[in-house]
């Protein structure tokens, strides 16, 4: 009789695209409360995001992210341009993209959903509210992982 082998836990690879170092650190701190294993890979602008996703330059060995947390208002290349590129690229279309932005503008929200973001979350200014938002995000991500990996036993 052979012993049952426990399923391997999946370590979520999260790509955080955020130009504000304070917001990036708050996201990291808030995500530490998540009840699943993860690694956050941080890039500071849209151009680096695309390099990461295409495994170019210094990102040649980067893991493929399970989810992208995308800020909209960034220098060099904004989040909407990044989202549009991701959704037009066949190799990237399956990656969930969650917009995590301070913008409450109807135009930004509408355009993000037109470009098929998985969710749009508004970054609160208050630290406690920010932590609650990221906690909600981690709950959402845990559900995505459960769906993608075939069940709660894989978490």
Polypeptide structure, described:
The structure is a single chain. This protein is α/β, with parallel strands linked by helices. The chain has a domain at 38-130: Rossmann fold (3-Layer(aba) Sandwich). It has 5 helices and 5 strands; from the N terminus they run βαβαβαβαβα. The protein has helices at 21-31, 46-53, 79-88, 106-114, 127-149, and strands spanning 12-17, 38-43, 67-70, 97-101, 119-122. It has a 5-stranded parallel β-sheet, sandwiched between helices. The protein is globular.
Calculate the mean pLDDT score and round it.
Answer: 83
Strand order of the largest sheet: 2-1-3-4-5
The CATH C-level name of the domain at 38-130 is Alpha Beta
Structural class: alpha/beta
Q: How many helices does DSSP assign? A: 5
Give me the CATH superfamily of the domain at 38-130.
Response regulator
CATH topology of the domain at 38-130: Rossmann fold
- Report the end-to-end length measured between terminal Cα atoms: 26 Å
Helix content: 25-40%
Keywords:
5-stranded parallel β-sheet, 16% strand, 155 residues, globular, disordered N terminus, Rossmann fold
Topology:
Elements (H helix, E strand, L loop, with lengths): L11 E6 L3 H11 L6 E6 L2 H8 L13 E4 L8 H10 L8 E5 L4 H9 L4 E4 L4 H23 L6
Parallel strand pairs: 1-2, 1-3, 3-4, 4-5
């Amino acid at each position: 009789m052979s012993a049952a082998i426990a399923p391997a836990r999946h370590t979520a690879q999260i790509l955080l695209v955020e130009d504000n170092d304070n917001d990036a650190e708050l996201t990291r701190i808030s995500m530490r409360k998540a009840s699943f294993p993860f690694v956050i890979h941080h890039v500071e602008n849209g151009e680096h995001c695309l390099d990461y996703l295409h495994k170019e330059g210094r990102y040649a060995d980067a893991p493929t992210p399970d989810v992208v947390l995308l800020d909209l208002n960034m220098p060099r290349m904004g989040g909407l341009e990044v989202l549009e590129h991701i959704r037009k690229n066949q190799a990237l279309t399956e990656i969930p993209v969650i917009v995590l932005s301070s913008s409450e503008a109807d135009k930004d929200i509408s355009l993000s959903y037109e470009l098929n973001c998985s969710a749009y979350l508004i970054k609160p200014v208050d630290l406690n509210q920010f932590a609650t938002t990221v906690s909600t995000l981690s709950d959402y991500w845990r559900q995505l992982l459960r769906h993608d990996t075939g069940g709660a036993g894989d978490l």
